[in-house]
Amino acid sequence: MSRRKFLQTTRSKVIFCVAGLTLSAFWLILNLDISFSTLIPSDSALESLRRQQKEEKKKWEAMQQQLARLDDTERDYRLLLDSAWLELRDGSADVEIPRRIREAAQLREVTLQNVNAVKRTRVNNDLFLLEVDLRAVGTISTFTAFWGDLAALKPAMVWRRIEIRSMMSMQTEGDLYLNGTLRIIGREPTAEETAAAQRAAEAKADSAEAPASATPAAAPATPAPAPAEKGNEP
Q: Per residue in 81-93, pLDDT tens?
């Protein structure tokens, strides 16, 4: 086969393309200063990448734990808000809290000597503390039942400070003197709760006015017939 015919065949064209690509690759390596170490990483480079991967994995796990703690904190805060004193739902704290304390004491035969006014202490924009100082006389059994009733209330009342000592001047053996401070967590209503309460009040007012306007006016009384005169009788 002559040289001209060989160059016209497909085989010669493939050989020419492969040779051209090989020469181009060598030219790029020589002129661009490409290092084979960057193309095929060494064992030390692989080990460094493994260490970095482990460190990033630890950071990711720590971040997931922090997110889980934040979720738990947010859930606990929501539960705290749901269990706090809300005057739209529970009534005026200045009136209802002393009333509940007196009812629990009367039920458990605890003698209340004094129940002070409710004190408010702001915690943040949403929460505040309600505290009541009280003094009472009772026995260990009546006090225990009294404490249980206060803790079972919704919202619950807990003791911030409590002092119990024996009453040496009392005639009944076993009587104790209690001096303490009850604490309740309160919260402000949300905008949605305020709007709902306002709508409920308006609906209640409308329902109270509707029967009054629907009541028909009373018919005028029919005058009684005049009695007949005796002189006109037959």
A: 888 999 989 999 9
Q: Residue 133: phi, psi to the nearest 5? A: -90, 135
What are the tens digits of pLDDT across the range 46-103? 888 888 999 999 999 999 999 999 888 888 878 878 889 999 899 999 999 999 999 9
- Number of structural domains, the chain? 1
Calculate the alpha carbon distances from 102 to 10, 80, 159, 212 in Å.
Answer: 108, 25, 16, 39
In angstroms, rounded to a whole number, what is the distance separating the alpha carbons of residues 183 and 127?
A: 13
What CA–CA distances, in Å, run from 220 to 9, 217, 223, 226, 227?
A: 127, 9, 9, 18, 21
Q: Is 81 exposed, middle or buried (0-12, 13-18, 19+ CB in 10 A)?
A: middle
Tokens (6 digits) for 148: 């249980």
45 located within any domain? no
* Residue 101 CB burial class (10 angstroms; 0-12, 13-18, ≥19): buried
**Token pair 């104790």 in the structure block, residue:** 176
pTM for this predicted structure: 0.59
Token couple for 62? 């720590």
CB 165 within 8 A of CB 176: yes
Nearest C-alpha neighbor of 82 from the set 123, 119, 126: 126
Greatest Cα pair distance, the chain, in angstroms, is 170
Cα separation, 13 vs 17, whole angstroms: 6
Q: What is the CATH number of the domain that holds 172?
A: 3.30.70.60
